[in-house]
Structure formats: structure tokens, C-alpha cells
Amino acid sequence: MSAVLIRGGTVVNADRAFRADVLCQDGRIVAVAEGLSAPAGATVVDAGGQYVMPGGIDPHTHMQLPFMGTVTMDDFFTGTAAGLAGGTTSIIDFVIPDPQENILDAYKKWRGWAEKSASDYSFHVAITWWSEQVRKDMGTLVNDEGINSFKHFMAYKNAIMCDDETLVNSFKRALELGAMPTVHAENGELVYLLQKTVSEMGIKGPEGHPLSRPPMVEAEAANRAIAIADVLGVPIYVVHVSCVESAEAIARARARGQRVYGEVLAGHLVLDDSVYRHPDFATAAAHVMSPPFRPKGNSEFLWRGLQSGNLHTTATDHCTFCAAQKAAGKDDFSKIPNGCGGVEERLAVIWDEGVNTGRLTPSEFVAVTSANTAKLFNIYPQKGSVSVGADADLVVWDPAGTKTLSVKTQHSKGDFNIFEGRTVRGIPSHTLSQGELVYVQGDLRAVQGKGRYIKRPAFGPDFGAAQQRAQTQKPTAVTR
Ligand code: URP
Ligand code: ZN
Ligand code: ZN
Question: Which residue out of 58, 60, 62 has the highest number of ligand 1 atoms within 8 Å of its CB and is therefore the one to mutate?
Fold first, then answer.
């Protein structure tokens, strides 16, 4: 029986912060109160002057992803271990079937790859094509396998992009099943056209990447997905919202009363598109991801969205490709594998730029780094809460600790760090996963295969019901 007592810290939950000790036993939190005594044999962590928060949940990662002709550097072990070093104790990754691939087969394949995870993990499943079999298998995934969210790539034409027919069928099916549809919102037809146009202008380098994916390309897709969800009466979650235009689309829909949720990436909160004009190809290419980093001004709008509650979660889209892989697009930016890292740095970057600047309170930090994700994907309060009965996935946070983020010290296998050289104040001193100390003041003790697959139950019968009722009300006859 393993026990850890975290003594003398300030517990921060999404709703409040208070002084309490936290006792963890056999993987769970068993007591949260002042003046707890340590059971015999317990390890005691001194959290004086520190915060005790739910471990981060990254709702958007891609470990061991086969993508654009190659496979990401981080697998489920190295990626989740890096997460633990940064205080992130759970990830939600993506099963991405090829078009025509049986989605249950793809799911089983990803489950196999993920067995080496060091932290707990779960999956969104992408719907990349449509058939009666896909419809049926979505039911199996929800009812038997604990999947409650389906992803739709509106970009990546000729690869994993899904058309409107697939979007409509899948959203409708998700509503029937009580599962959340999510979208990568970019109009893939426009991207395809603009990639050709930009290339024909003679722009072949990474600076062409943002030109081929301007904000309106994202906004069009966000508005379309939101409108489809509204007509069908299903909630919708928009991943990696990067610009004013799509954040506004979400805010407008929410103001109309629609259940729309938005995710923001740590990178989009602090970087801008100047990275694509770096004279060194490798540096510029290392930042190629979609949607791209945006002109200055967009980030502040995203912070405002988190503050106001119009945007809800933060993620990384951790998807690491090394310089040799990025070199596939040396003469054609559209062939640079899309993706950047960040699973290890997310919490520190958001604390430093969010809490230290006064943009977020510590409780709002917890909301956007763990609790909101746990609620939206139906694993709250098992995850995302420091409370009795919750999983003992915790981070002890030293608000005075500093660190300069660098590829030289990161645990991720990528050979680049998009936050290179940034000195952050506020870092994890300890991370607990399933009640075990897995990171202690620089010492990473991640264990391959220790992570568990976390089932996420379907939402109940009221899921989307308010909108459905509104949509099915009979119009009153007009008399003239
Ligand atoms: O550029 C990115 N974001 N790569 C990963 C795939 C995706 O679009 O999420
Ligand atoms: Zn995406
Ligand atoms: Zn992604």
C-alpha cells in the first residue's frame, strides 16, 4: 500500500483555493484537510509556499502519429513521460483511421501503441470517411470502449479530410450516441487552392505556409461546423482555435445560446507568424503546424477568450517531427510535416504568461488546464479535481521556481523547442500519477506501461436536448 502526504500547500481547484494537506493512497486522493497526519510508511512532500493542483490534462496530442509520410518522434512513452515532467498527468490522443480503414481496427492499433504510456490516456476517434459500418462502429466505440468524442478534419484534402456529407452524418450519429463532435476547422479546399497559388507566385519556403492558410480559411470552417451542429442540435468542440475570426464565431454562437466549446494551444497564445520568416529553413519549418501561428494581436484575443469563458481548454497538439523529417518540404512548404511539440511546457508557459501577468487567476488556470477538459469529456471529478475519491494525479507547483525552456533540457524526443530561451516563473516541483511520485525536483521517474486507458462514458439523454427541442418546434402558421 503506497501513500503520499502532501503537506502545507494551498490546494487550487477550478472553483476555489484553500489551505489543506492532501493524502493519497493506492492511486486515489483519500483526504483533503488541514493537519493530516502521515500513515506509517508514507512519503511526505513539503508543499510549503506551493500550490497543489490537479495534474494537467492535455486534450490534444499526437504521439506516434503516422502523418504526411512519416511518424512523429515521440511515441506514447517518451511523449507522456515529457508530459509528466511538466505536470501533465493525462493526455487525450487521436485515433486517425485512413479513409476506408475500419475504425475499430484503427482503434485497436492505437490502443496497442499506447500501451507503453507512462501516464493515463484516452482517445478521440477521427471520422475520416462514411459508411453504414462506420455508423455502427461509432456505436461500439461509445457503448463498449469508452469513447465519447469524434474528431473531424475539415482540412488535409486527399488525406484525412472529411466532406460535409461525412460531417453531417457523423455529427448526427454523435448526437444519438451522446458523444461530442470535435473539428479541426480549416477549409481544406481553400488550403489546397492557396498552396498552389502561393507556390505559383514563386514562394516555396515555410513563409508560404501561413499565406496558404489565412484566418478566414479557419473562420469559414469554424462557422460551417458550428452551423451544422446548430441545425442538428448537437454540442461542438473546436480544436486549436488560433485567430480572432474563429474565436468570434464561437463567441457569437454562444451568445445565441449554442453549446460551442473552444480549445487554444499554448503555442498560439505566445508565438506569432514572424517565426515563418526566419532566414534558417530548419527553424522556420520547425514551426510549421496547422493552423499556423498568427499575426500579433490574435494571441491577446485568445487570452481574452479564456478569461471570458468563450474559450475553454488549453492543449498543445504535441506532434513532433525532427529537422530531417521537416526537410521533406525543403523545396515545397506544403510537404513540410505539420506539427510542433509542447506537452512538457504547456503548464509553465500558461502559468507564466497567464497567471503571472494577471490574465488568469490560479483557479482559472486549473479550469483551462485540466478541469474544463475533464468536464467536457466526461471524466470529472475523477480527473481535474483535488477532492476525495479523485485519481491522485497531482502537480505540486512552485510559483517562485524558474526555468529557461530549451531543447537541451526537454524530455521530449523532438529536436526543437518552440519555446526555446523563454524563462518561465512557476514550475512543477513534484508530479504524482496514480498516487506515485513520478517527477521530483528535476528527477523524472516515469515508468513505461504504467499509464492506464481511461474510458469516458457517453453523455446522458439531455445531451443536446435543448437545441433539439428548439429545432423541432413546429413553426406557427403565418396569417397575412
Ligand atoms: O499541424 C498539426 N496541427 N499537426 C497535427 C495534426 C492536426 O492538424 O492536428
Ligand atoms: Zn488539427
Ligand atoms: Zn492535432
Answer: 62
CA dihedral 256, 257, 258, 261 (to 10 degrees): 100
C-alpha 480/C-alpha 471 separation (Å) is: 24
Q: Is the peptide bond before 291 cis (omega within 30 degrees of 0)?
A: yes
Ligand 2 mean position, distance from CA 156 (Å): 9
Query: How far apart are alpha carbons 172 and 169 in whole angstroms?
Result: 5
Ligand 1 touching residue 184 (CB < 6 A): yes
**CATH number for the segment(s) 55-376:** 3.20.20.140
Identify whether the C-beta of residue 340 lies closer than 8 Å to the C-beta of residue 25.
Answer: no
The reply to whether omega before 381 is within 30° of 0 (cis) is yes
Beta strand residue intervals within 70-175, DSSP E:
70-71, 88-95, 120-126, 149-153
Q: Cα–Cα distance between 284 and 100 in angstroms, integer?
A: 34
Q: Which residues pair with 315 in a beta bridge?
A: 265
What are the domain boundaries of the chain?
55-376
- pLDDT per residue over 74-108, tens digit each? 999 999 999 999 999 999 999 999 999 999 999 99
Phi/psi at 362 (5° precision)? -55, -40
Q: What is the pLDDT of residues 385-431, one digit of tens each?
A: 999 999 999 999 999 999 999 999 999 998 999 999 999 999 999 99
Q: How far is the CA of 116 from the centre of ligand 2 (A)?
A: 24
Distance, CA of 174 to CA of 134 (rounded, Å): 12
pTM: 0.97
| CA 477 to each of CA 169, 231, 438, 480: distance values in angstroms, whole numbers, following the listed order | 30, 21, 65, 10
